[in-house]
Amino acid sequence: MKLDSSILIDSYASHLQDWPPVEQRRARGVSPGAAMTKARQTSAEDACIEDGPTLSAKKSGQVSSRRLESVMPDPALASKGSVRAARGRTKQQSGDRCRSNSKRGDALPAECSYQPVEAAQRVLRVLRAMNSLRSASVAELHTITGLSKSTIVRMLDTLIHEGYVMRDNFIGGYRVTSEAQHLSNGFRGLPLVIEASRPWAVKLTERIKWPVSVATVHHGKLSVDFTTSAISPWAFPFATLHRQLSLANSALGRCYLAFCSQREQEDLLRGLGTSGKAEEKFDPVVLDHALKAARQNGFAVEDGMRGSRKFQFIGVPVFNEGVCVACLGVGFYATAPAAAHIVSDVYTPTREAADMIEKGIARLRAWSVE
Q1: CATH superfamily, with its number, for domain 190-369
Q2: pLDDT in the model for residue 9
Q3: CATH 3.40.50.970 assigned to 118-183
Q4: What's the gap between Cα 155 and its chain centre?
Q5: Using one digit for the tens of pLDDT, what is the confidence trace for 100-156?
Q6: What's this model's pTM, rounded to 2 decimal places?
Q7: Distances (CA, A) of 267 to 72, 221, 259, 282, 293
């Protein structure tokens, strides 16, 4: 709908003729721009009458039901305050989506932020095939990957340029170099544990609602390397990720001391004795009793005299080949019903999640060896 400029000018002039002098308008607090605004509204209404009764009918409430249905959101969605639903996206379409850089749970491969780069996919496909065959010809790679031979040659040239593949005329094909081993350097140790722990920690939080943390010991210090606080409805009012915890007094620290090897336990306790930190001070008799109770119960609790009175925590060990590699911790409010049923409501599901994490670690380590 287009407005004729002459209509606006004539309306503006007619309104100015009916208005009082400038001094009186200023005394009343009316700006000169108000005349133009009123003229635009009046002219727009007059012009819309020629195109149809849409605007005037809306102002008078005489809008057809079909037009209302096209502009008004569904009452059921509006009652939930779903802004996305009003814009044409339902909660089922957008609520479960998680960006690849989000802290909220897992980011599924099919729900990443952007579409994958096909050229990068082809390079990785060729490299995986080369790594499984150790040495291969273009024809063998074509059979395995399904890519065209010209594409495979371009991908191989790229890998040769980066130093991961080389052409060997003696075998009549290509083979991977030692540089390919560097691709797995960052996957050993902690990243492997986190990859195996993440999905089961998320499922545990979805089941019991409380935040779950995964902690490991590195250079004699215990720190939280992963947490589900971002998706827990009862998250704590303090940060837990990358938080250093006391080995002698926290639930996760006592859990690790109770289930690690005897030699490692002695080394850690010796380091705590020489650290001089107030949070690491402990009574050897009390700590020894707590570690024995943890081994008997299957989980550790924090020092009741030094810990928080508002929250409670338990720590459950995660093993790989008989060695404690991490601890799975759950925290909850001391007044919650879970505090009265720790074994059934907290420990049992946490132990089940730890068992699945142990299987995941074993599977990932087997793949890395292959």
Answers
A1: GAF domain (3.30.450.40)
A2: 53
A3: no
A4: 33
A5: 445 554 555 556 677 889 999 999 999 988 888 867 899 999 999 999 999 999 999
A6: 0.57
A7: 68, 12, 14, 15, 21
Residue linked to tokens 């924090």: 302
User: What are the start and end residues of each CATH 3.30.450.40 domain in the chain?
Assistant: 190-369
Phi, psi of 249 (to 5 degrees): -120, -20
Q: Token pair for residue 123?
A: 């390079």
Cβ–Cβ < 8 Å for 299, 313: no
Is 50 exceeded by the pLDDT of residue 56? no
Query: How many secondary structure helices (H) and strands (E) does the chain include?
Result: 16, 9
CA distance 298 to 220: 23
What is the distance of C-alpha 41 from the center of its chain? 49
Sign of CA dihedral 235, 238, 243, 249: negative
Q: Return the residue matching tokens 């089961």.
A: 200
Specify the long-range contacts of residues 306-312, CB closer than 8 Å, at least 24 apart.
306/249, 307/249, 307/250, 307/251, 309/334, 310/334, 311/236, 312/339, 312/342
Token pair listed for 236: 């704590």
Amino acid at 363: R
